[in-house]
Amino acid sequence: MAAGLLELGEVFVVLAIAGAVALRTGLSVIPLYVVGGMLAGPFVAGRVGLPYVPNGELLTVLAEIGIVLLLFFLGLEFSLGRLLAARSKITRAGLTDVAVNLPLGVAIGLALGWSFVEALLLGGIVYISSSAIVTKTLIDLGWIANEEAEPILGTLVFEDLFIAVYLAVVTSLVLGGSGGAVATGAGTEAVGGLGGVGRSLVVAFGFLGLLLVVVQYGTGFFVRVLDVSENEAFVLRALAVVVPVAGLALALGVSEAVAAFFVGMGFSTSGHRERIERQLTPVRDVFAAVFFFWIGVGTDPRLLGGVAVPLAAAILLTTPSKVFSGYLGGRAYELSRRRSLRTGLGLVPRGEFSLVIAALAAGGSTPVMQETIPALAVGYVLVMSALGTVLMQRSDAVAGLIERAWPHADF
Asked: Can you name the residues that pair with 187 across neighbouring β-strands?
């Protein structure tokens, strides 16, 4: 008991220091949380004999709550009616996103001499943006009220739905239909050959379909459940809905992030949205910080040197491709060129789902899956989370550079 409390105390000390450094330097706090976790984890502090934070069940559960609350807040910005009204724009932006970035990642893997399955895993890692990091940065920068927030959030929704299908398919390919389960820090995909994939898809989309029905027709429930004046009861009731639903989704092999997003959509039309944001924002921020710390704790920096060349190639090629596809997505929403560019910059960060795919790869049978892909994914997420948040913070300067390079462009 005492050891666990000391470890948790160390987590908050490191997070507080990282936050202070971010305030002093003006950098995004997210990559600093990741680096803090790396330094305080077993692969750095543990190796030099210092007290370290293990990647145990408690930290994992707290991290899970962080991603759940981040996506819950993302859902608060959408109503189902608004989502359905924008379905054609979301589809165009999402299809452009996947058509540009997923094949590029596969091509990089094939160029490295990897098998198709290994390359497909890399394609997923470089394709999907981090809903958690992008959402946190949108809120921190105040972009959530801007026009570009809609195509960014719409693309994230498309990605989260697409990745549910992708994970089911690649899990079957990685395990070769042998059955079993692959556990990751942010989800579990049950598999068992092609039949297992089919059952997983039926369960996943059945559960999400049921959630959508509740969101569409359960407005009265969402109104009543938070109809309480006491702040303590209000916060507890909100958590008593979103956390169990996310846990049930996870138990069924469905993304807890997508489930939390749908619950947020349900509460968005309840009339309690502003109060939820006011009361739960500190709770969300604490658990989100733990989530990013948890990413760092599981990172062994020694593995990064062996993947320097493919890592550099992935960063140099997929950063502009993501900006380009996001720009096209912004244009699909009929935004100006400058705001479309900001849309592309806002989708650069990669994070939690890339690490889920890496953990899945580690359960494979080849050295590339077991060692190379996980190390590459960690380095990629670390760089892209930092680079993406900096690009968002400096979006006006980036637009200015493009304007000077192409003076006739309307930026």
From this structure: 184
Residues 129, 135, 141, CA angle at the centre, nearest 5°? 120
Q: What is the mean pLDDT of the chain?
A: 85
Q: Does residue 308 form part of some domain?
A: yes
State how far the Cα of 284 lies from the Cα of 209, in Å rounded to an integer: 26
187 band by pLDDT with thresholds 50, 70 and 90: very low
Return the bridge partners of 19, or none. none
Range of the domain at 289: 64-405
Q: How far apart are CA 197 and CA 20, in angstroms?
A: 46
Instruction: Tell me the per-residue pLDDT of 18-31, one tens digit each, with 9 for 90 and over.
Output: 999 988 887 778 77
Q: Are 103 and 46 in contact (CB under 8 A)?
A: no
Asked whether the beta carbons of 129 and 322 are under 8 A apart, the reply is yes
Residue closest to 254 by CA, chosen among 205, 220, 217, 212: 205
Domain tally for the chain? 1
Q: Is 193 helix (H, G, I), strand (E, B) or coil?
A: helix
pLDDT of residue 378: 83
Neighbours of 244 (CB within 10 A): 11
Residue 139 lies in a domain: yes
Whether 12 is covered by a domain: the verdict is no
CA dihedral 322, 328, 329, 335 (to 10 degrees): 130
- Distance from C-alpha of 411 to C-alpha of 395, rounded to nearest angstrom: 11
Tell me whether residue 233 is in a domain. Answer: yes
Per DSSP, the residues of 116-147 read: HHHHHHHHHHHH---HHHHHHHHHHHTGGGST
From CA 369, how far away is CA 172, in angstroms rounded? 14
Contacts of 361 (CB under 8 A, 6+ apart): 118, 121, 174, 369, 370, 373, 374, 377
Looking at the DSSP bridge assignments, the partners of residue 60 are none
- CB 241 within 8 Å of CB 225: yes
Helix boundaries (H) for 26-148 = 29-40, 57-76, 80-85, 87-111, 116-127, 131-141
Reading the block at residue 302, the tokens are 């020694």
Q: For the domain that residue 97 is a member of, what is the CATH number?
A: 1.20.1530.20
What is the amino acid identity at position 347?
Answer: L
Contact criterion met (CB below 8 Å) for 330 and 388: no
User: In this predicted model, what pLDDT tens digit does every residue of 242-292 receive, in sequence order?
Assistant: 999 999 988 887 777 778 888 998 998 888 989 999 999 999 999 989 988
Does the pTM exceed 0.85? no
